[in-house]
Structures are given as structure tokens and as C-alpha cells.
Amino acid sequence: MVTSLQATTTLHNGVKMPWFGLGVFQVEDGEEVINSVKWALEHGYKSVDTAAVYKNEEGVGQAIRESGIPREELFITSKLWNGDQGYEETLKAFNTTLEKLGLDYLDLYLIHWPVPSQNKYKETWKAMEKLYNDGKIRAIGVSNFKEHHLEDLMADAEIVPMVNQVEYHPHLQQKSLHEFCKKHQIQLEAWSPLKQGQILADERLTKIAEHHGKSTAQVILRWDLQNEVVTIPKSVKKHRIHENADVFGFELSDEEMKIIAEMNKEERIGPDPDVFDKR
């Protein structure tokens, strides 16, 4: 059972990754992202997840520096954007990300989307492996990869991805993918765990929340953790950042876990990774 905000899962290369973190998708660079990250870190968060395409890496880096927290105590993730895929392009984009963050290394770097129409993720992965072997990244992984993308990548890879960050919430549980990742020791991580708020009024969730004296958001985030899925909810409100992290003093029963599992519709709010190719 995950019992604290600082609790970690151990990736297959031995690196410890926090189960819980702050996502900063659609958070504006400058004051908004700086405040969000600083509030999270002050509250005890150790993990922050950004991406090149979010265009807020500079603000995230500034917040990290201003927090005064030693770098080695934090787990910082960023992602390579679609238009930067390719071997040399990846090396260049990674250096740009490090410069914007003002860091010497990343804890986790992800290929943001497979973009099968480009057919570049294998050469991109070779560059990721080089950066990892050179000690510039502590762990490497992918985002939005389905099973067949992973199988194709792993057929030629020297290193199995350590993480797969995907859309994951009660309406999109991706159970087959989750089992595949467990089999290959790939840690599943959830983006949009609250389905952008679209499921918070569901009566099944509100009933469970009332029973525990918690919000429906807290119930969903607790469900993630009990399913052994790393989760990174986003917020720009201080009280919400604090509330999201208050998910360690209770546990969902087997029956409650089953009720939420039965909500699955395999329904996305984001794009289908098989066809998404925005660059």
C-alpha cells in the first residue's frame, strides 16, 4: 500500500520514482507554472512532469531553483515532442530541454507519442539509449504507446522502456496494456487521471467518496495508486494541489475497487496514438 507522498516505486533499472507527482500540462509559463510547482514542492511533492510542447520548462526550472530543495531529492520528467523525433534531432531537443530547465540531468525522459506515420520512434529510442548510457538521464520511457508500439520498439531495443505514460482514468483503464507493461516491468503512469473533471459527478464515485469523507477526485487518485499506477494530476490552485495529495490516509475496499473497475468504457478524451501525428 502506498502510504505517503514521498513513497516510490522502483523501476526495472533500480531508480526510485515517486508514485505521485504534479503534472503541468496547459499551465502557462511564468508566474502560473512557477507558483504551481513551488506550492507542490512546499507541500512535499517530489515529482514534477513537464514536456517540451507544454512550453513551460523554463518556469518549472525556475521554481525548482527557488524552492531551495536539493536537486537529488526531486524527480523531474520531460518529454520529446513529435517534430523532434529522429536520432540527431532527439539529442538536440534533449539539450534544449536541459537548458530551459537549467538542470544537469533529467530523472525521466519520454517519447511523447509514437507517431507511427513518421516511423521514427526506433531511431529516436537509440538516441534515448545513448543519453541514458551517457548518464544524462536516470530513466527513459515512452508516452501514449500501445502494446503493438511497445512490441515493435522492444524488438530492436537494447533497453526496455522503464515507464509508459498513458491516458488512464475509470473510463479508460487499458487493462490489456497494463498487464503487458507489468509483464515487461514497464511502470504505467496516468495522465489525465480525472478525465479533465468529466467523471467527478458520477454517483458511484460520489457514494464511495461520501463513505470515506473524501472528494471524488481523491477517490480516483487513490484508485490509481491501489492499481499500482503512478499518477500526476494537474492543478494551478494551491488548495487543490494540497487536496489532490491527501490520498494516503484511507484505502478503498476490494468491493469499491471493483465498482470503479466496472466503469470502464475504453473511452478516450485525448487522441488515438495510432493516428495522432501533430508536429
Automatic annotation (TrEMBL):
Residues at the active site: Y54
Ranges of residues in domain NADP-dependent oxidoreductase: 23-264
Residues that bind substrate: H112
UniProt keyword NADP, yes or no: yes
A Pfam cross-reference name: Aldo_ket_red
Record GO terms (molecular function): oxidoreductase activity, acting on the CH-OH group of donors, NAD or NADP as acceptor
Protein's name according to its UniProt entry: Aldo/keto reductase
Species, as recorded: Gracilibacillus ureilyticus
